[in-house]
Amino acid sequence: MLDRWASRDEIDLLEQMERVTLSIIGTAMFSADVERHAADIRAALQVLRRGFQREVGVVPTFPEWIPSPHNRRMQGAIDDIDAVVHELIDARRGRADEYDDLLSKLLTARTDEGARMDDEQIRDELVTVLLAGHETTAAALTWTWYLLANNPGVHERLHDHAADADPTETVGSSAGAADDASFVKQCVQEAMRIYPPVPVITREAIDPDEIDGYEIPAGAEVVLSQFVVHRDPDLWEDPLAYRPERFAPGEREAQPTYSFFPFGGGQRICIGRLFALAEAQLILARVVSEVRLTLRSPTHDTPAVDSAVTMVPDEPVEMAVTDW
Ligand code: HEM
């Protein structure tokens, strides 16, 4: 990515972050070059985002089996993503033993009774990891760069720390490289607090309940919003201020447990959270050591957000790439 930037003086940040995280998830999980499909996946996801927003909106949409223009567009986008995933599966069939990655594990997995996963299950798992495994981290990084560009003091501090940081070393020792690494991590966590890549999750109530005086009937869909909780002034002082030191060792522990839950919680907590955090820190540390990203647009204070499962800026974030 940095090589690619060498010949450019301005980049579309989200697009670049999506490309690099797609490339990483493709290599790590499927040992494949998925990045070459980046433009198709991006276009398909854009259609699905718009479609999702329509489906949760107030204007009713037709059921899936009716060939309405909306449904045809959605199906077309799903087919485009399926095509990428089926290409991965087809290329691997008969060669699963040659690789030790998630794709091979899914193809060779057996239940205790010896049954294998059917094609649809394998496809579902792959699509989940492909999408959940790159869009979210790209959103986290985009917001982190955006906040750094708007907080030059923090950006410079990060630059000073990153050169010595080993982002795989974010716990334990209180001195030296671990401290530097810890600051890289704090920058990502604080960005995910203000702009959580997944702004809401939902749960279905199994039984009736009462929470803080509110009756929850059985079957109700309960919405838990990271976006709201992470910005609650009762939980976070001056909540819109970007202050990575809120996550410094010792500080975070003083906060109530679920005042920060970018990866959800409980049994369905994000399976990729350690992967995502390590990846985001490595990208951040490497890029900030080499180049300085300066915001060209948007220049207004609070960018509108576009929320559809993940939350990204509603307009392109253009960054200038320069030396420090
Ligand atoms: C900053 C990056 C990420 C964020 C903010 C994030 C956020 C989340 C959240 C909030 C959930 C829980 C959804 C719920 O409770 O309804 C979740 C689940 C999940 N995430 Fe992530 N995620 C990230 C990165 C990743 C990565 C890199 C992977 C794959 C390697 C991944 C794979 C998954 C999967 C498979 C689930 C479903 C787990 C289950 O239901 O048991 N995520 N993620």
Give a brief outline of the structure.
With 324 residues, the protein is mainly alpha-helical. Helices cover 47% and strands 12% of the residues.
3D architecture notes:
The protein has eleven helices and nine strands. With 324 residues, it is mainly α. The protein has a single domain, classed as Cytochrome p450, CATH 1.10.630. The strands form four sheets. A three-stranded antiparallel beta sheet has the order 1-9-6. Strands 2-5 form a two-stranded antiparallel ribbon. Helix 2 packs antiparallel against helix 7, helix 8 (152-162) runs antiparallel to helix 9 and helix 9 packs across helix 11 (273-290). The longest helix is centred in the N-terminal third of the chain and has 24 residues, at 69-92. The radius of gyration is 21 Å and the shape is globular. The two termini are 18 Å apart. The mean pLDDT is 91. The chain binds protoporphyrin IX containing FE (HEM). Residues 128-129, 132-133, 136-137, 140, 197-198, 201, 262-264, 268, 270-272, 275-276 line the site of protoporphyrin IX containing FE.
Write out the strand line-up for the largest beta sheet, numbering strands in chain order.
1-9-6
The CATH homologous superfamily corresponds to Cytochrome P450
Query: Measured on Cα atoms, how large is the radius of gyration?
Result: 21 Å
Helix percent reads: 40-55%
Q: What structural class should be given to the helix and strand makeup?
A: mainly alpha
Low-confidence runs of at least 5 consecutive residues: none
Number of helices: 11
Give the tally of structural domains. 1
Return the string of H and E elements.
HEHHHHHHHHEEEEHHEEEE
Ligands, deduplicated: protoporphyrin IX containing FE
Reported for the largest beta sheet, the result is: 3 strands, antiparallel
**What gap, in angstroms, lies between the N and C termini?**
18 Å
CATH class (first level) name = Mainly Alpha
Strand elements, count: 9
User: Architecture in CATH?
Assistant: Orthogonal Bundle
Question: What is the mean predicted local confidence, pLDDT?
Answer: 91
Strand content: 5-15%
What would the principal axes of the Cα set say about the shape? globular
What is the CATH fold-level name? Cytochrome p450
Pfam families: p450 (PF00067)
GO molecular function: heme binding; iron ion binding; monooxygenase activity; oxidoreductase activity, acting on paired donors, with incorporation or reduction of molecular oxygen
Keywords: Heme, Iron, Metal-binding, Monooxygenase, Oxidoreductase
Family: Belongs to the cytochrome P450 family.
